[in-house]
Structures are given as structure tokens and as C-alpha cells.
Write a structure and sequence with these properties.
There is one protein chain. The protein has 282 residues and is of the alpha/beta class. The protein has two domains: 58 residues, no CATH class; 160 residues, Rossmann fold, CATH 3.40.50.150. 33% of the residues lie in helices and 31% in strands. It has eight helices and 13 strands. A seven-stranded mixed β-sheet has the order 9-8-7-10-11-13-12, with helices on both faces. A three-stranded antiparallel β-sheet has the order 2-1-3, with helices on one face. Strands 4-5-6 form a three-stranded mixed β-sheet, with helices on one face. The longest helix has 15 residues. It is elongated. The termini are far apart. Bound molecules: S-adenosylmethionine. S-adenosylmethionine binds next to helix 4, helix 5 and strand 8.
């Protein structure tokens, strides 16, 4: 099948979008190949003959799929936060808990557990009357978490991502959410970016970036976390969270709150457990 895909890629001139489903005789396996090009009937016969497949073709409506996905995601409420795309923004009361997030090519609308847990955990900090002054969101995606902490704590926030589309989109989203004075956005892999101070100390580090990147960044997180600081790690399976708890223990971190559901897990860790921190269970 991948030979067939390659064949399409190399041989069909760009005309229009078509969905091609190629099924082999022997199995029920079928593969969808989206082409920007028209196939003429002779070409279809030749391909069927050469690749021993049956080809079905459907025209796909031409539309801006990125925009469509952007406007269509439904508003989501996460405790006090309500997150909408700009399409729905006018139908939602705008206050410090409302976020307008367009996703486009970046990750982070609040619909995924990994983001949702982070939004819950930062609200747990607020409930404990903890107000971090310096915050970094590592792997900002759409900027959703950076914008949320800026609105919630009114603090200075740095948002970084190693992906340029995410950096550009976060810049747009911080303007839409009117937090430009609070959030600075840079391209950076982990905490190594040119604009970041290597010895900076953060009161809160949020990293929703999956297990392996977190593991390799763990040492730098500890070094850049203030003594009374908090670390939120997300994008983990429950098993990976167990492993990270072990690693965190070796670094002297304590688990303050753990959030898990549908095999996703997130951790709120700290070097020093504050007196007013109560262990919250969901
Ligand atoms: C799962 S998304 C999280 C987006 C958003 N923060 C959220 O919570 O929905 C992970 C993001 O981390 C970025 N990323 C992954 N590894 C990174 C690294 N080592 N340094 C900076 N960004 C990273 C990816 O490009 C992606 O945008």
C-alpha cells in the first residue's frame, strides 16, 4: 500500500481533492489516500491492474479544514475556566476565567485530559492561596496554560515551545486574550532558549510535554525551580506518572496532588510543602 501511496504522490497532477480508497482483493484492509489531483478512468484501471487493488473515489468538499476545526470545537468548562474558540467567544461572558483559544496547527484547546488536569491543578494552587510570581509554561502549544496562569495569578509568565507554529499561535492568542503585558513567548527547547536566563528561578513550572521530554528535562526543572516553587507535569500515562513519582522523589520533590482519569495522569509537585497546602482528592 505504501508503494501505491508513493505512486500517487509522484504521478498525479494537482487538480482537486479526492479521497481514494484502495482495497486489496485478499483482505478487507483498505487505505484512504487523499489526493489533490484528479484521476482519469484509464489511470484507475492501470493502477488497479498493477497494484492488484480495487479503487473507490469520492470527491471531498474543498474547504479550509484548519479553520473549520478551529471554529467548531465546543466551549469547555474546567472548574472556573471556560475555554472557547473565537467563533464562540461572543456567546460567553468574558472575565478572568474566560479564555479564547484558536488551535490551528498547535495543541491545546482544553479538551484533552493532559491540558484539563493542568488547568485544574493551577486552580488548586489558587485555592491554597498560593500566588506564584514567576511562571514558565514549557511546551505552550496554543498558549492555553500560559494565558490561564497569567489571568489567574496576574503574574509574569514565559511561554516556550520548540515548535515555531506553536510560538506564533501563542503570540496571537495572548493578544486575543489581552495578556500581552504578562506573557512573553519564545522558541526554546526546554529551558535552553537564548532569551531565557539559565539561572532563572521560577515559582511555577508547567510542562505538558509527554513522558520522555519531561524525563530528560527533569534536572533543569529542579535547578530552575525556586525553593518554595511548584512543578506541574502532564501528558503522562498512569504508569509513566508512577515512574516520574519515583524520579521526583530522588530529586527531593513531594507529590502534592495527583490527577488521573482515562489512563492519563498529571502531577503537582513541590520542593517544600506549604503549611496551607491541603491534600486534595478528586
Ligand atoms: C501536549 S502539547 C501541550 C500544549 C499545551 N501546553 C497544553 O497543555 O494543551 C506539548 C507541546 O510541547 C512542545 N514540546 C515538546 N517537547 C518540547 C521541548 N523539549 N521543549 C519545548 N517544547 C516542547 C510541543 O511542540 C507541543 O506544542
Amino acid at each position: 500500500m505504501s508503494r501505491l501511496e508513493k505512486f500517487f504522490e509522484l504521478n498525479i497532477p494537482v487538480i482537486e481533492y479526492q479521497e481514494v480508497i484502495a482495497c486489496t482483493n485478499k483482505s478487507l484492509f483498505n487505505q484512504k489516500i487523499f489526493l489533490k489531483r484528479a484521476l482519469d478512468p484509464i489511470m484507475i484501471c492501470l493502477i488497479e491492474e498493477c497494484f492488484k487493488v480495487k479503487i473507490l473515489i469520492t470527491k471531498v468538499q474543498r474547504k479550509n479544514w484548519l479553520r473549520a476545526s478551529n471554529v467548531q470545537f465546543s466551549p469547555v468548562k474546567i472548574n472556573k475556566f471556560i475555554i472557547t474558540s473565537s467563533f464562540f467567544a461572543n456567546s460567553v461572558k468574558q472575565d478572568k476565567y474566560s479564555l479564547t483559544i484558536d488551535a490551528s496547527l498547535a495543541f491545546g484547546t482544553g479538551h484533552h485530559y493532559s491540558t484539563k488536569f493542568c488547568l485544574e491543578l493551577i486552580q488548586e494552587l489558587k485555592k491554597m492561596q498560593i500566588n506564584p510570581l514567576t511562571i514558565i509554561d514549557v511546551g505552550c502549544g496554543t498558549g492555553i496554560l500560559a494565558i490561564a496562569v497569567a489571568k489567574l495569578f496576574g503574574s509574569r509568565v514565559i511561554a516556550v515551545d520548540n515548535d515555531i507554529h506553536s510560538v506564533e499561535l501563542t503570540k496571537r492568542n495572548i493578544i486575543v486574550n489581552k495578556v500581552m503585558r504578562h506573557v512573553k513567548v519564545y522558541r526554546s527547547s526546554g529551558l535552553t532558549g537564548n532569551h531565557l536566563k539559565s539561572r532563572a528561578k521560577y515559582d511555577l513550572i508547567v510542562a505538558n510535554i509527554l513522558f520522555n521530554p519531561i524525563k530528560s528535562l527533569m534536572r533543569s526543572f529542579i535547578q530552575n525551580l525556586s525553593n518554595s516553587g511548584f512543578l506541574i507535569l502532564s501528558g503522562l500515562t498512569i504508569k509513566q506518572a508512577r515512574q516520574l513519582k519515583e524520579i521526583s522523589k530522588q530529586f527531593g520533590l513531594k507529590v502534592l496532588v495527583e490527577r488521573k482519569e482515562a489512563n492519563w495522569a498529571s502531577l503537582l509537585l513541590t520542593k517544600t510543602v506549604p503549611k496551607r497546602a491541603i491534600k486534595l482528592s478528586y
